[in-house]
Structures are given as C-alpha cells and as structure tokens.
Description:
Blueprint: H1 6-13, E1 20-25, H2 31-38, E2 44-48, H3 52-55, H4 63-72, E3 77-81, H5 90-100, E4 103-108, H6 111-121, E5 126-131, H7 136-142, H8 156-169, H9 183-203, H10 208-220, H11 228-235, H12 239-251, E6 255-260, H13 265-270, E7 274-277, H14 280-286, H15 299-318, E8 322-328, E9 334-341, E10 344-350, E11 363-366
Parallel strand pairs: 1-4, 1-5, 2-3, 3-4, 6-8, 10-11
Antiparallel strand pairs: 6-7, 8-9, 9-10
Helix pairs in contact: 1-2, 8-14, 9-14, 10-11, 11-12
Amino acid sequence: MYRVILEKVRSYIFSENPPIILILGLRQVGKSTLVQTICKDRPFARFNFDLVSDISEFTNQDRHSLGLFARKYKDQVIIVDEVQKSPEAVNIIKHLYDTYKLRFLLTGSSEVKIRRGVGDSLAGRLREFKLYPLSLEEIDIQSGLNFDREIEFNNYEFNQEMLMRYLVYGSLPELLNIKVEDYKNYLNSLTNSIFSKDVLEVSGTRKPVQVFHLAKLLAHQIGQIVNYNELSQMSELSRISVVNFIETFEQMGLIVKANPISANNRESITKRTKIYFTDLGIRNSLIANFSDYRKRFDQGALLENAIFVGMKRSMDYQSVSYELGFFRSEYGSEMDIVKKVGGEEYLFEVKTKAKHFKKIANLTFIDLHSTQKYLY
C-alpha cells in the first residue's frame, strides 16, 4: 500500500548508518502494512510484542545470547510491532543497536508508554514518524487513479464522493478492503475496542464508563474551545483526570489539540484548547451518527476537523517546523485555523458554502468545494 512517508522512511532505514526508526500512530492506521511494504524487497525479521514468545527473544541480556541474536539477524531489518508492550526489552534493543549496528524498525500505538520507556532509553538514536489515516491522495493511488498536485484535480467527481465518505466514515485503510455497508460495524467495533481495552490498558483506570463518556463529550465538541471544568462535571471525573485522559487520547493518536496562537506566548499557554479527532469515522461512531454529510447539522465542525488534521498531517509528513492552532481575541472574535510556517502566518476560515468576503491579507476562506486540496 502506498503511503506518502514510505520512501522517506526507506531512505532512513536503508542508509549507511541508520537511526532506530519508530513509527507511531492510531490503532488500525496501517503501521504494520507500512513496515511490511518498506521491507518487501529486503530481508527482515518480525517480532510482535503482543506475543509473549516474541518478547522472550529480547529477555536474555547475557553477552553470549546477545551475540547469538546479532549474528542470526545481522543482515536483516528487525521489525518490532507494539514495542511499548515491553519497556524492559528497550535496553536490549539499545545494546544491540550500539554494539552490533543492527537495523531496527519499531511501531507503537501508545506514545504515552513509549515516552516512559523507549523515548528516554533511545534518546539520540531515534527518528520518529507519525502515521495518520489515509489522505485523499493515498486513497486515489490505492484506487488506481492519477493525481497531479501541480496541475489540477483530475478526478474531481470521484474525489468529491470520497470526500463525502471521508467526512462521515474517516479514512482508515481497512475501509478500502470492505464494503460500504460494512463500514459502520467495523468502526463501531474498533471504537469500542479502543475505549474498552486500549485506553484502559494505557491509563490503568478502572472507570471505563466515565472515560467513554468523556470521549463522547469531546466528539460532540470538535472545533469548539473545551472547558475542562465542564467536562469534569459532565463525565464525573476529576478535572486533573480529564486533563490526563485527554493527554492519553492525544498520545494514542486518537485526537490532536489546537492551541491558541498569539503574539503573547505567555497568554496563549493559559488559554483553553480546541480538540479534533484524527479519524472522523471514530468520532462519528462515538456520537452514533453516520448519516449523509449533506443532511447533517454538524457540517461545519466536520469540515474544520478534516482540514485541520489534513494540514497537520501534510506538515508532519514534510518534516517542517510549524505552529498550527487558532486565534481568539479578548472580545470574542475568532479565526478558525492559524498556521505559522517559514516565518509566515496564514489565516483560514472554514465555511460550509462559498460566499463573497472582503479580502484580507493571508486570509483564505475554505468551503466544501475547496476542501479537497487540504486533505491531500
């Protein structure tokens, strides 16, 4: 399967002195398929830390055992899926990398656990990539269509139909392999699994009902400034628990936060944030609404979510330095999306229908028909 970052990751892992590669992303976002494609024409050994038998390969720390492991896998890329499941194995990976120069390609779906173990242990050795749900360009290519970014959208009608699906069902790779009538069941099953198992495992909480309710509240508030005190009262969680769970959702790749961008950085830090879902299919599953986009009450919120995540995905894949957030003045006026990159500031207002507006420097109005390019 084609992914935008495929060749960039390949160039790192097969360089003369490669770093340890870590690919992070939401569950079912395609990490395993990506690493398999990267190594399809090269020898590799694969381990999955969901399996105790695979973890056991990394438990013997004596010099003789490590030497045998290094000789066995010397000319292979060593793939380790769900690396966060065994923080104890990280020191062995570090030793094998430092001493024997083995190539490691790691994947993980829980950045919070990785930060506690892998991130610190492998500091200075790691190159991270974040994998997002499919862009429209990736969907086009998977569908056998050609897209020329510099000339025009060659498949406008097809892309508009894909956009309608994107806004309702999201763009997780598995959707390309199943029938449209099966989308709802797939997304509901995945969403329930994430919040009934994965989130609880990462956070260690014993309050699954409250956590699921918090996620539903956030899903209803995409594009709005969240009030942590209000969320605390409505979810029956403490304020600090709400903050911690939102942090967990973000580090698991479920959501992204938009912070206020202001000339006064100190002021910005104290302001509230907006929250968007990385995949709209999961968001719509949480609110139990898979109705057609054209008949929905939340059209503007869906568009804004899609555009914000699309911009973030594009800049993360390009490895550019940027700020992406929003602006709200003390008088209540607001700019939906603010992007700072390369010393320039760009402003965006998202509207569901095209309208005539007064031209303002660096301000772009985005409607449904101009949305496509921001999702490539």
